[in-house]
What we know:
Elements: H1 2-13, E1 71-75, H2 80-85, E2 100-105, H3 109-112, E3 114-116, E4 119-120, H4 122-135, E5 138-143, E6 151-152, E7 162-164, E8 178-180, H5 183-194, E9 197-203, H6 214-223, E10 227-232, H7 250-265, E11 277-282, H8 289-294, H9 297-301, E12 305-311, H10 318-322, H11 330-333, H12 340-348, H13 351-359, E13 364-369, H14 384-399, E14 404-409, E15 419-420, E16 433-434, H15 436-448, E17 455-458, H16 461-464, E18 470-475, E19 478-486, E20 497-502, E21 511-518, E22 528-529, E23 551-554, E24 562-566, E25 570-575, H17 595-601, H18 608-612, H19 619-626, H20 643-646, E26 647-653, E27 656-661
Parallel strand pairs: 1-20, 2-5, 2-14, 5-9, 6-8, 9-10, 10-11, 11-12, 12-13, 13-14
Antiparallel strand pairs: 3-4, 7-8, 15-16, 17-18, 18-19, 19-25, 20-24, 21-22, 21-23, 21-25, 26-27
Helix pairs in contact: 4-15, 5-6, 12-14, 14-15
One 2-acetamido-2-deoxy-beta-D-glucopyranose binds near residues 91, 92, 351, 358 and 401.
Amino acid sequence: xxxxxxxxxxxxxxxxxxxxxxxxxxxxxxxxxxxxxxxxxxxxxxxxxxxxxxxxxxxxxxxxxxxxxxxxxxxxxxxxxxxxxxxxxxxxxxxxxxxxxxxxxxxxxxxxxxxxxxxxxxxxxxxxxxxxxxxxxxxxxxxxxxxxxxxxxxxxxxxxxxxxxxxxxxxxxxxxxxxxxxxxxxxxxxxxxxxxxxxxxxxxxxxxxxxxxxxxxxxxxxxxxxxxxxxxxxxxxxxxxxxxxxxxxxxxxxxxxxxxxxxxxxxxxxxxxxxxxxxxxxxxxxxxxxxxxxxxxxxxxxxxxxxxxxxxxxxxxxxxxxxxxxxxxxxxxxxxxxxxxxxxxxxxxxxxxxxxxxxxxxxxxxxxxxxxxxxxxxxxxxxxxxxxxxxxxxxxxxxxxxxxxxxxxxxxxxxxxxxxxxxxxxxxxxxxxxxxxxxxxxxxxxxxxxxxxxxxxxxxxxxxxxxxxxxxxxxxxxxxxxxxxxxxxxxxxxxxxxxxxxxxxxxxxxxxxxxxxxxxxxxxxxxxxxxxxxxxxxxxxxxxxxxxxxxxxxxxxxxxxxxxxxxxxxxxxxxxxxxxxxxxxxxxxxxxxxxxxxxxxxxxxxxxxxxxxxxxxxxxxxxxxxxxxxxxxxxxxxxxxxxxxxxxxxxxxxxxxxxxxxxx
Length: 664
Ligand SMILES: *[C@@H]1O[C@H](CO)[C@@H](O)[C@H](O)[C@H]1NC(C)=O
Ligand SMILES: *[C@@H]1O[C@H](CO)[C@@H](O)[C@H](O)[C@H]1NC(C)=O
Ligand SMILES: *[C@@H]1O[C@H](CO)[C@@H](O)[C@H](O)[C@H]1NC(C)=O
Ligand SMILES: *[C@@H]1O[C@H](CO)[C@@H](O)[C@H](O)[C@H]1NC(C)=O
Ligand SMILES: *[C@@H]1O[C@H](CO)[C@@H](O)[C@H](O)[C@H]1NC(C)=O
């Protein structure tokens, strides 16, 4: 290991200022410089029959619910003490690991995280790095319905860490069971070594008389502090429906938590026994949290718990996917997402739970959610409308004292993925696709920042108008940002809003800075955040492209107001201080290079000047080599690091050298 470090440093010493070099490996090509037809690069038109690439464009709902004169004002006291004395209901402070994380269905980790511990998906690393730079970390859960039958095996053919079992067509949620190897944990830990992802797993709950605890025995020592906890049952209130149990109630479930706790206590291979379980993970359709509390979960087992959690989707599309339930027409369903009432309805029903969690000093996590269960809706789940919805829902959960929420990621056959790797047979010529809701997670990460002090308040703005919500964010006890929404879709401009920011009892600064999450319509998929985008489907390597666009709005200090325009549709994040650390966030300075071009750069003939000019944006070289016209510039000052200060060496991963940088 030492000699490898030495090798890494000597390689880097040739190239002052480099931040990222290396390759992540072997067949994991995300880009090619020529397409099969021999023309120059870009995404190849792919077979797009999968739900993840559905082209449906719905008609934007006709909402004509304007404020008088299309203008209203928002203003809250500039400090928490005054806000509190005025009765403003602030959330708990939100801490350092980002608010929105992800829930990844166990059966798709091979596509999303990587094939194994020596074969990681570079776009995933970049997507996580963009969040980590903004919020300090990201929580990711590997689990879902698949976790209940997951079985640890010694090895799987062709070096994979996970493999699907055969489908059981009688199950309602037709997610296959999986087998996995301990290399899954090494793979997850290797991701954490590169970018600060913290993980959740799930203990199989299909057989409670014969607990299979290998996931705890093996997961804890390999993942260490990067592993936060284990789910104890995924939606136990659906166990009868999903044929996991013949009959089952809240008392049965809490009883099984007891039996699981006993099995953990008597297992000599489990080191950490307390503070590890995540419960009750209710889908909260049939059972309520109060039922679970009444059955003794907290009284008897609170020391066992890492957190309390629930899982909930506002709607379902199971009729279309599985022929069960009621058909919901996407066009008619769309307006349900374009209203502040959606997030309010979803989040505020759990305040008894969030209060309970706070009282025992535990997190309260929305462990799995998205636009609709059973894959989401075509024309809704990956649109700008869904991005506004997930953003509002995130703010609303934070306001309701949820500590975190995980957006669910499925396979190619769902509409709602925040990110999707290409279908396996296209992975040599296509890159990833970023869904609209990934932008929501990025904006929340930036809005909450990484001071561990952000407190959120729903302003019930514009007379609590459901189409123009607004929030204020306090950090370090001072008002730091406003978040302003406009759900109305009106290309004429007649429904654009002007929101006047005021500071009651104080004065507005002479100007404020604004970053917009923009698109031309709620129905489409192309989105920019502060001018930058991840690009169209099959072109995403996880890095933001384009120039960072930060608007300045001049304020009128004599009338104590700053007029901020919010288009219809639109979202604005207003920074009250120019020195806010989140303001200059564009593409993360820590990047991971993909593919073939990196291989070129790793060859012995590499001229050091090429590397030396990269300054941590190795993508420039890649684009140069790939001959594309993409921009990767930002107006963020790029730092040139003296090599000794920045190069970390993550080790040899399956024979592949990975070097990476740490930066601010
Ligand atoms: C915020 O919390 C995280 C996680 O607990 C910690 O690593 C980080 O140092 C904290 N940041 C600040 C500014 O206190
Ligand atoms: C990962 O997969 C690659 C390619 O199949 C294989 O060469 C390598 O040995 C595997 N690594 C591990 C740790 O299993
Ligand atoms: C990465 O995975 C390999 C197993 O392939 C393991 O030996 C190594 O310790 C892992 N690195 C980290 C940081 O977990
Ligand atoms: C969130 O917690 C704070 C601090 O305990 C409390 O004042 C507030 O009422 C809670 N918010 C909600 C919506 O329950
Ligand atoms: C990939 O597989 C799908 C499903 O089997 C098939 O329809 C499609 O043509 C394949 N695409 C390519 C580029 O081979």
